[in-house]
Amino acid sequence: MAIFEWKDEYKIGIPAIDYEHQDLFDFVNRLHDDFIKGCEKGEIEDCLGDIHARMQAHFALEEKVMRDRHYPYFAEHKKSHDAFLDEFVETMKKFRSDPGLAFREELEQELKDWIVDHVLHEDRKMSLMAR
Prior knowledge:
There is one protein chain. This protein has helices spanning 15-37, 41-68, 74-97, 101-129. The protein is mainly α. It has one domain: Up-down Bundle (Four Helix Bundle (Hemerythrin (Met), subunit A)). The termini are far apart.
């Protein structure tokens, strides 16, 4: 059951990045499914690790595109990526100590909000200015 639907309005016009954004949506939905199915804590931790790894790889791609296109707000955008990854590591640690329902709902909402906000604002801005 998807909690996070990909929409064409999320496309930023850079096919490789659009593909990875859609992939991130799929991973958040997988995390939600794992929660719903009552998967073991270790399986959830694996999914969180997969999301973290995908985010790192995705951010590396975005940063390469920004450098290649001489994006003027590269440092600001990269700082946002780094802060999110740091926060996500803290979230993963928090899950290990408190995997309760309230935390799960908060985590899913934070992921959805951050990804959609970042895609619709920061990444779209980057795609428009870094052509």
